[in-house]
Each structure stands twice: as structure tokens, then as C-alpha cells.
Design a protein that fits this description.
The protein has 432 residues and is an alpha+beta fold. It has one domain (3-431): Anthranilate synthase, CATH 3.60.120.10. It contains eleven helices and 20 strands. The protein has helices spanning 12-23, 63-74, 87-90, 134-143, 164-180, 201-212, 258-270, 272-289, 329-336, 347-357, 410-431; strands at residues 3-8, 28-33, 46-58, 78-82, 106-118, 121-126, 159-160, 185-195, 216-222, 225-231, 234-239, 242-245, 248-253, 299-308, 312-322, 344-345, 368-372, 378-382, 386-390, 395-404. It has a 20-stranded antiparallel sheet that branches. Helix 1 (12-23) packs across helix 4 (134-143).
Length: 432
């Protein structure tokens, strides 16, 4: 049972900054930030878990069962991620592509200390062994500055995992498979990376978050490994017996001119190719959720809804289902993982093509990051628009990708990848 204390906040934004700066030097923590987005499915404005009462690191094989056992044994809050390559625990698939970072396929921890920000209140929930530290931590956070100086480093050179010509060759092969009818859609990704990087990690998160202001910002650190995520996409959330998934497919850039920006948004919403991408994945998600859902409860609440973010316009669909109250929450993840927006359709065939043609192991990228609550409710975002970093190896990686359908133009898809990479590349260049 956690001890709880509540503190009113006169300046929630300033408290967030102090809280993150206070936590940033810790060896293990996870920060989730909604950035003020209005979200009827969200339960907090910010959530910090820090310190480890227990942890689970796993390779792919048997990972979902281990996670189920870990969640049941703790009966508490858990924060962490599921890497894309957990597909190998679900299907007869492998991951043999080069892996620059070597992150585990699954990592979750039970935080010693939990701080939740809801509107103008900070809620401290600490395990018994650290409950006596609540007041001292509240005071220490208050003494922590809101801003920290950025440590300058050496100029960083971003490198490409594959060049444009190789991207086009692989894209054409996928399009040939689509035209043969082997698959309908595949999300093909490429990696950008930096070697010899000494990153100022608090500055990286602040800069990435300030550029994108996404609804699912996250910074997870365990040891020397960091995930900085500026994700706009929800994978799956559970509230009681209701679950929702919000696949995102269809992208257009923003424009500084208001009239031109509106035209780009309107064009995206009516583009047959972009809508086809989204509709195919919405149907795939509907099928995934039906595995655990009560009969007849799966509904598409919104299809190809336009949502606008700091850098891009996106098409988002919302699928809802009702599940049995006795269902293991991990089973919902098992039934729908990896998310359709990052694989393709049919899912297994698309993943096989992806594995053969991509030049890197995805790892946490295009997996899921989030939390379980003590009652089994959860919320996970898709790990996209994200930087992965190992401070010991001094390697940073930021993969990006896009969906290929029968109507796809490889040149246009390649440019979309560059658009999605822009924020991460900007952050790394500003580190130099």
C-alpha cells in the first residue's frame, strides 16, 4: 500500500520543469507528459516514476508471460516499454538485423516513488520503505531550478542507415509484393544515427518536447539507456472494461501561412491514398481487439479524423471495445502487438517483409511505452518520433518510417520520412 500526500500547485508548468530536473540525474525513472493536450482518455497531466522496487528485463521469448507474472506479483504501478521485436514471442518470426544499441526487448519497473500531476495538484504516492521522504522531496523539488544550462559538446554528424537509392529498391520490392496481392500495406522504416555522442540528456528531452509538444511525451532512463519520445500516437488504453486504440496513418507537413496550412490539412483529409492507409490499419486493429472483446462490442468511433500537431497534420481513427472484467490486461497487449500502424496488413506477412528488407533491428522503436496502474488499467503510446541513446556506447538512433500501399510514390514516402526525422535531427545538431 502506497502512502499518499497531495500538494496544491500555483504554477503546474514550473513544477513540471523542477520535478524533471530533480529526477533527471537518477539511474532509473520514467516521465510521461501530456503537454496540456485535452484528452478524454488521459488521467493525468504528468506522471513520474522514480527508483526501483523491482524490475523486469527480458528478451523476446516468453516476455509476455513474464510481464503478466510480474504485474500480478506486484499488484502495483509499473512503467516501461515493449520493443517491436516482441513479435518474435507471438509469431514464428526472428530479428536478425544489425542492432547498434542492444536495448532489451522488454523493460518494466515498479517505482519506489510516484508523482502524479492532475490539474493544479501534485499527488505523491510512495512505497512504505520511502514514505518518510515525501515531505523532504517536495521541498527539494521546490528548491530545484526550472531551467538548467545546456552543456555544449562537439558537433554531431547524423548518418543514414541506408541511402536513398537503397530505400527506393526496398520500397519497389514491397510495392511489387502489394501488386501481387501478397500484402496490402507495409510500414517500411529506416534508421538515422549518431556515433561518438555525449548528449546532455535533460536538454535533449526539453528540446525535443518543445519542438513537438506531443500528447505522449516520454523520457525513460534505466542505467545508461534512454528513450526520448515525442509520440503523437496512442497504441492502446484500458479504463475498466473499455479499451481504445487510436491508429495514426496519413501525414502532411504544417505551413507557416495559415491559409496554406489549412489547404494542406484539407488535402490530407481528402487524399484517397492517405485515407486508404488509415482505413486498412483501422480494420486490422478492429480485428485485433475482437480477439479479447465481448461479442459485438468493437466499434469504430472515429475514422480518418484530422488532428493537428506542432509539425504535422495526421489522420487518426479511434476503435473502442468492451472486454471481460476478468481478462488479464497483458492479454490485450498480446492480442494486438505490434500495433498495426507500424506493421501493415496482413500483419504477419507484412512483418516478414519488413524484417527482410529493413537494415536495422527496430528495438524499442515502433514498440510501446507507458504504464500499468494497480487496478489493471493502462495507457501505452507508440514509440515514434523518438531518440534512443546509450551514454556508454555513445550512440544515438532515431528511426523513421511510413506506410507503403498500392498507390504509394517512393519519392513522396521518402520525403515523409525526412519530415518525421526533422525534430530529432534538429535536437542532435543543437547539442553540438
Amino acid at each position: 500500500m502506497r502512502s499518499e500526500r497531495r500538494y496544491p500547485l500555483s504554477n503546474p508548468k514550473g513544477f513540471k520543469a523542477r520535478l524533471l530536473n530533480w529526477a533527471g540525474g537518477s539511474e532509473c525513472f520514467c516521465w510521461l507528459d501530456s503537454n496540456g493536450h485535452t484528452d478524454p482518455l488521459g488521467r493525468f497531466d504528468g506522471l513520474l516514476g522514480i527508483g526501483k522496487a523491482g524490475e523486469l528485463l527480458s528478451g523476446a521469448r516468453g516476455a509476455f508471460q513474464q510481464l503478466s507474472d510480474f504485474r500480478e506479483n506486484t499488484g502495483d504501478w509499473l512503467l516501461g516499454y515493449l520493443a517491436y521485436d516482441l513479435k518474435n514471442d507471438l509469431e514464428a518470426l526472428e530479428s536478425t538485423n544489425p542492432d547498434r544499441l542492444g536495448f532489451p526487448d522488454l523493460f518494466f519497473f515498479q517505482p519506489l516513488k510516484l508523482v502524479e500531476i492532475v490539474h493544479n495538484t501534485a499527488i505523491f504516492r510512495y512505497l512504505p520503505e520511502v514514505a518518510g521522504e515525501i515531505q523532504g522531496d517536495w521541498e527539494a523539488i521546490g528548491r530545484t531550478p526550472e531551467s538548467l544550462p545546456i552543456k555544449s559538446g562537439e558537433p554531431l554528424r547524423t548518418r543514414m542507415g541506408i541511402f536513398k537509392e537503397a530505400y527506393h529498391r526496398s520500397a519497389r520490392e514491397i510495392l511489387s509484393a502489394i501488386h501481387r496481392g501478397d500484402i496490402y500495406e507495409a510500414n517500411f522504416c529506416q534508421e538515422f544515427f549518431v556515433e561518438g555522442a555525449r548528449l546532455d540528456t535533460p536538454a535533449v528531452f526539453r528540446q525535443l518536447n518543445s519542438i513537438s509538444r506531443p500528447p505522449f511525451a516520454a523520457w525513460l532512463r534505466f542505467g545508461t539507456r534512454h528513450i526520448f519520445s515525442a509520440s503523437p500516437e496512442r497504441y492502446l488504453t484500458k479504463r475498466g472494461q473499455q479499451v481504445w486504440s487510436q491508429p495514426m496513418k496519413g501525414t502532411a507537413p504544417r505551413h507557416a501561412d495559415t491559409k496554406m496550412d489549412g489547404l494542406l490539412a484539407q488535402t490530407l483529409q481528402s487524399d484517397p491514398k492517405e485515407r486508404a492507409e488509415n482505413i486498412m490499419i483501422a480494420d486490422l486493429v478492429r480485428n485485433d481487439l475482437s480477439r479479447s472483446a465481448l461479442r459485438g462490442s468493437v466499434q469504430v468511433e472515429a475514422l480518418c479524423e484530422l488532428k493537428t500537431f506542432a509539425q504535422v497534420h495526421q489522420l487518426v481513427s479511434t476503435i473502442r471495445a468492451q472486454v471481460p472484467g476478468s481478462l488479464d490486461p497483458v492479454q490485450l497487449l498480446r492480442d494486438s502487438f505490434p500495433m498495426g500502424s507500424m506493421t501493415g496488413a496482413p500483419k504477419i506477412s507484412a512483418m516478414a517483409y519488413i524484417e527482410r528488407l529493413e537494415s536495422f533491428k527496430r528495438g524499442p522503436y515502433s514498440g510501446a511505452l507507458g504504464y500499468f496502474g494497480p487496478n489493471g488499467d493502462f495507457d501505452f503510446s507508440v514509440v515514434i518520433r523518438s531518440l534512443l541513446y546509450d551514454s556508454e556506447k555513445r550512440v544515438a538512433s532515431f528511426p523513421v518510417g511510413g506506410a507503403l500501399t498500392a498507390a504509394a510514390d517512393p519519392d513522396r514516402e521518402y520525403e515523409e520520412c525526412l519530415l518525421k526525422a526533422r525534430a530529432m535531427r534538429q535536437v542532435l545538431e543543437e547539442q553540438g
